[in-house]
Amino acid sequence: MVQAVINIDEHANRVLNIVKAKFGLKDKSEAINLVVGEYEQTALEPELRPEYKAKLAKIISGKHLSREEFEKEVA
Question: Would residue 5 count as lying in a domain?
Answer without folding.
Answer: no
